[in-house]
Design goal:
The structure is a single chain. With 91 residues, the chain is an all-alpha fold. The chain is 53% helix and 0% strand. The radius of gyration is 13 Å and the shape is globular.
């Protein structure tokens, strides 16, 4: 079953809810930059909140600022990171 679109919607909803954005999830484009020119206008505080929310909601660990810069570029890059994250170790 392909849940890519569902996962994209979850990521967009997470962005809107956790960062209290003044737009709806539907208004966020998949490839729209989250930071910098032409972006959603997020800042470093938003980045920190996003890293925590991605770990809490998807178990996605972002170990360094360099990795965060790559992963947090757009919804598509977050989606790829969530889909490719290592499986949790067996309990």
């Amino acid at each position: 079953m392909d849940n890519t679109n569902e996962l994209k919607q979850q990521i967009k909803s997470l962005l809107v809810e956790n960062l209290m954005l003044q737009i709806t999830a539907a208004e966020i484009k998949d490839d729209q930059p989250l930071f910098g020119p032409g972006s959603l206008g997020l800042d470093s505080v938003d980045a920190l909140q996003l890293v925590v929310a991605l770990d809490k909601n998807f178990g996605l660990k972002i170990p360094t600022p360099a990795v965060a810069k790559e992963i947090l570029h757009s919804v598509n890059t977050i989606l790829a990171a969530v889909q490719n994250r290592p499986a949790p170790p067996p309990v």
